[in-house]
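Protein modeling request. Please complete all fields; requests missing the sequence field cannot be processed.
Requester role: graduate student
Desired output: 3D structure, token encoding
Chains: 1
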Amino acid sequence: MGPLAGLRVLELPAIGPVPFAGMLLADLGAEVVRVDKLSESGLAGEFPAGPIGRGRRSLRLDARRPGGAEVVLRLAASSDVLIEGFRPGVAERLGIGPAQALARNPRLIYGRMTGWGQDGPLAPTAGHDITYLAISGLLHGIGPASMPVPPINYVADFGGGALFLVTGVLAALFSLAATGTGQVVDTAMIEGAAYLGSMTRTAAAAGAWSDKRAANRLDGGAPNYRCYECSDGRFVAVGALEPQFWVALLGALGLDDSAPSPYDPAHWDACADLLSATFKTRTRDEWAARFESLDACVAPVLTLEEAPRHPHNVARAAYTSVGDATLAAPAPRFSATPGATGPLTTPGADTEAILAELGYSASELDELRAGGTVG
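Delivered output (375 residues):
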């Protein structure tokens, strides 16, 4: 199933963007074998057995123990892709870095995921989505005028991290088809996030974007591209940027072209005040019903719980159940080779089968167990 059917991926232990990338590759049909730690706690423990850890075969292994690195290298030798999220230098110290893995399998695509990249002064230090966004320049522009607000961890972890890792791996596979040789893909969340900001940097270079928050067309500054509170305390999202959409918006609100213009920053405050007062006269769902059939680019701001029940999402089967969670269905969609969500993975359930496929005998497996290498 899926366009990546036949692709063999080895996923080493990690949290956040690496498991997300493994989920995406598995949903698109890749055969993913995941190495899980012998013991998990906290956030890390939520991924192997949870919905994001779905669709993989799993073995539990401590690569620091005798024979652990050899197991990983044998897996790498039979894989097309390896993805890992260790801090720089950790994989090398464990004996499973790119040099060792590519020596076993010169065609291997070795995908590395870090926040800062494999080198540079910040490379050895810890970080999270918010810190990578801070240094990328993007965080400064997100939020109200009073302060920056982290956009959860969508931008650096999953957008600039996981999706760029998958893009890099697939590009390297395309290159492999032409050259016959593998390579290392160094994915840094800070750089992927910065790349996502290319449009605003282009606008800034042209003098069309201010570094002030909530002062631009697309950051909540313009009155025709922001959210408005309704009478029930919920919100609608307005994106009526183009004039024809603005005219449709005014008509649905019972206003006319005497309203302050959203295309002149000098009128933004007055325009926003008028729209704010108007939207507060009805509930969110009343406005949603009024705008649903109009080309005015207005939509209700739905909660995580509400979104799967929206008629459009239902018609598209845009959500699916995985374990006890409702998640987005695999995307994008393919006409001939559709992807699919795999079942929940039980960490370590495939340890014996995978080691047998690698040529380990029963006595060798017992020896690995006795040494605390596998579980």
